[in-house]
Automatic annotation (TrEMBL):
Top-level division of the source organism's lineage: Bacteria
Protein name per its UniProtKB record: Prepilin peptidase
InterPro entries: Preflagellin_Peptidase, Prepilin_IV_endopep_pep
Organism annotation: Neoroseomonas soli
Protein topology in the membrane: Multi-pass membrane protein
Main localization of the protein described in the UniProt heading: membrane
Keyword hit for Hydrolase: no
UniProt-listed PANTHER family: PREFLAGELLIN PEPTIDASE
Subcellular location: Cell membrane
GO molecular function, one term: aspartic-type endopeptidase activity
Keywords: Cell membrane, Membrane, Transmembrane, Transmembrane helix
CC annotations in GO: plasma membrane
Record field: transmembrane: 28-46, 53-75, 95-115, 149-166
Length: 169
């Protein structure tokens, strides 16, 4: 099994999990970022030590660049860790593509939330309801109150698009 395939098999389900968890709780578990980081470094090591080192440096630089945004509340700390972990598993050119795809997905997500304020009806769950219905009711409440975006959704979309577009060796 190639390093890239290992990274895809590990990262794609974890990105989906991180997105779902961010929607439900606005938290991304640290273990998700750690496992993605390890799988990405293993994939890059399959290409060589120099490639892995450069990717790790790019991930660290991205972390350092995004940390002030998290400190100011513009981005969540879990989002910064998830983006940096993905970057450490990608070649620098692919990291740029990942960032661009994530920004575009974030724009679509933001637009959906802006429009959602006018479209999402008042939703109340009486007597429990299904998990999906409860999550939708909470999300509708967050949209109307202009709550923070679950940016892991955009990160997951950007990451999955890049991972699926990488050429197989």
């Amino acid at each position: 099994m190639s390093g890239l395939l290992i990274f895809q098999v590990v990262a794609i389900p974890l990105l989906c999990f991180a997105a779902a968890r961010d929607v439900a709780t606005r938290l991304i578990p640290d273990t998700v970022s750690i496992v993605i980081l390890i799988a990405g470094l293993v994939a890059r090591l399959a290409e060589g030590w120099a490639e892995a080192g450069v990717s790790l440096l790019v991930g660290c630089a991205l972390f350092a660049a995004l940390l002030p945004l998290a400190a100011r509340g513009a981005l969540g700390g879990g989002d910064v860790k998830l983006i940096s972990a993905m970057a450490a598993g990608l070649a620098p050119a692919d990291t740029w593509t990942f960032i661009v795809a994530t920004v575009f997905a974030g724009g679509v997500l933001g637009l959906a939330y802006i429009l959602g304020r006018y479209v999402v009806p008042q939703t109340r769950v009486v007597g429990g309801g299904t998990l999906l219905r409860r999550v939708m009711a909470v999300e509708a409440w967050r949209v109307r109150r202009r709550g923070p975006l679950p940016y892991a959704v955009a990160i997951a979309v950007g990451g999955i698009l890049v991972l699926l577009s990488l050429p197989r060796a």
